[in-house]
Amino acid sequence: MDAPSAGGLNKLTGEGALTDIPVDPGEIRDGMTLVAGNYGKPGGQGAPVLFEGVDHVPEDTSKRREHLFRGMLEHIQWDPELGNPEAQPVEPGPLGGSVECLLASLSEDGNVICGWADEGTAAVALFENSTLADAGKLFVEMRGDLER
Q1: Cα dist. 78→88, 104, 122, 137 in Å?
Q2: How far apart are the C-alpha atoms of 145 and 148, rounded to whole Å?
Q3: Is the pTM of this model over 0.90?
């Protein structure tokens, strides 16, 4: 699930690299792999996409995705008094499973968090300054490179 590039974005190294795990992935048991990284446009334009996922998940992966969603909302310091953003289903593409995105913003664009859950894997990504449609499309493209 680790890839040097995903959906046309490059995994950032050096200054832009992820130095810690910003979102609690839940319990990691033997055989499970945690993958996390920042992915950015070539040339460093725009905010990087923060990706975090786990594979070989023995329990219900949609529950693990919910855990990751909550963690990502905490990471961006979403104010719960503003309500809970509703996850919208996204066409999952050829890999199937379930893909959802939620807009954690009071405007039409802003922080969008997308997640997938399928047999054995759950992952989320944060897209800053995006829309549900754009983030969902890019997330499905990234997933094709990340989930092998």
Answers
A1: 18, 7, 21, 23
A2: 7
A3: yes
